């Protein structure tokens, strides 16, 4: 009788342990941060000692992103007033959007195409 009780208790313990491990295996895995591309104008704020205190990227839609002041972020600060494209990860902290820059490049002013471009002249027949 005791032997049956021990076997039943062992099976129950094994079943419960299997459920615990299965629950961990089915738990959602943390998402890898998504890298996005943004374009905007860089603006740098400095203190009275000429030390950078903040860098912002403002998009054409007037969305402001604060730049994390790591190595790449500080490099981006060298382009104050310039239009750039950045590849970055966006996070939100204290109701502000922050970006961690992975890479960036300077972009030139884009010219808007003419609605009715001049037609090319037809060369004369020979």
Describe the model.
With 126 residues, the protein is α+β, with helices and mostly antiparallel strands. The protein has a domain at 35-106: Beta Barrel (OB fold (Dihydrolipoamide Acetyltransferase, E2P)), CATH 2.40.50. 25% of the residues lie in helices and 36% in strands. It has helices at 2-26, 71-76, and strands spanning 35-46, 52-58, 64-67, 83-93, 96-106. A hairpin with a 5-residue loop joins strand 2 (52-58) and strand 3 (64-67). Residues 112-117 have low confidence and may be disordered.
Q: Please tally the β strands and state the result.
A: 5
Unreliably modeled segments: 112-117
Q: Mind telling me the CATH class of one domain?
A: Mainly Beta
Distance, first to last CA: 114 Å
Question: SSE order in H/E notation?
Answer: HEEEHEE
- Helix count equals 2
Shape, please? elongated
Rounded average pLDDT: 81
Indicate the structural class: alpha+beta
Biggest β-sheet strands, sense, barrel: 5 strands, mixed, barrel
Q: What is the percent of helical residues? A: 10-25%
Strand order within the widest beta sheet:
1-2-3-5-4
Q: What is the name of the CATH topology of one domain?
A: OB fold (Dihydrolipoamide Acetyltransferase, E2P)
Radius of gyration: 29 Å
Give a short overview.
The protein has helices spanning 2-26, 71-76, and strands at 35-46, 52-58, 64-67, 83-93, 96-106.
Characteristic key phrases:
single chain, 126 residues, alpha+beta, OB fold (Dihydrolipoamide Acetyltransferase, E2P), five-stranded mixed beta barrel, 5 strands, 36% strand
Secondary structure blueprint with pairings:
Layout (H helix, E strand, L loop, with lengths): L1 H25 L8 E12 L5 E7 L5 E4 L3 H6 L6 E11 L2 E11 L20
Parallel strand pairs: 3-5
Antiparallel strand pairs: 1-2, 1-4, 2-3, 4-5
């Amino acid at each position: 009788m005791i032997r049956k009780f021990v076997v039943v208790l062992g099976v129950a313990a094994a079943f419960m342990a299997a459920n615990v491990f299965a629950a961990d295996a089915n738990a959602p895995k943390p998402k890898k941060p998504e890298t996005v591309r943004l374009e905007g104008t860089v603006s740098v704020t400095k203190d009275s000692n000429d030390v950078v205190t903040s860098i912002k990227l403002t998009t054409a839609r007037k969305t402001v992103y604060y730049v994390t002041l790591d190595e790449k972020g500080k490099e981006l600060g060298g382009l104050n007033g310039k239009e750039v494209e950045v590849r970055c990860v966006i996070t939100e902290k204290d109701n502000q959007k922050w970006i961690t820059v992975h890479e960036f490049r300077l972009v030139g002013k884009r010219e808007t195409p003419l609605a009715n471009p001049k037609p090319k002249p037809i060369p004369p027949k020979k």
